[in-house]
Amino acid sequence: MTEIKKDLKKDVSLNFRVxxxxxxxxxxxxxxxxxxxxxxxxxRLRQESCRLEADFTSAESVSWxxxxxxxESTGVKPQVWLHLSASSHVPQTCQxxxxxxxxxxxxxRSYRFVADEATAEAQDDACEEDLLxxxxxxxxxxxxxxxxxxxxxxxxxxDVCPVAPKMSAADxxxxxxxxxxxxxxxxxxxxxxxxxxxKRE
Length: 201
Hints:
Layout: E1 10-11, H1 23-28, E2 31-38, H2 43-46, E3 61-73, E4 76-93, E5 100-114, H3 117-124, E6 130-133, H4 140-151, H5 188-200
Parallel strand pairs: 1-2, 5-6
Antiparallel strand pairs: 2-3, 3-4, 4-5
């Protein structure tokens, strides 16, 4: 994979819109954008959380940086590249103890931009790098959210649960569950047998 060198780059966050990013312009400027957004700004990622929207704090945020570059390649004109790094802590439900677990998500990806979707599809199988179609209205926030969603674990778990997992459950409507069977509760099968006996009489 081609490495994007981050030395001598400049922060051009004030000159570019993140939701309509001129990727080629960012690369030509040899610049980078960075930000820290509330997790509430990423609706699909927020839906993976165990919290209600009103319960989010400033600790639940998404930090990111996007570096643009024009990189030389033998026999072709300089190519537009973007390197993305992003991280976030997403509160989820631990599937072992059912308590809240703060899931750390970290992303480091590089993308080469090509003229259009057809070119990206045609070159995709022969390339190791990720290919994206270039656009002056590229939505960087959507790319950040897509990558963080793919980084989510299939089964969120604590490394060590803060409380012992519950290994059994009782039906609340049964007034004590199995313990009630030996405490004077009628056996439904015995009641059924008695009904059948009455019919024979």
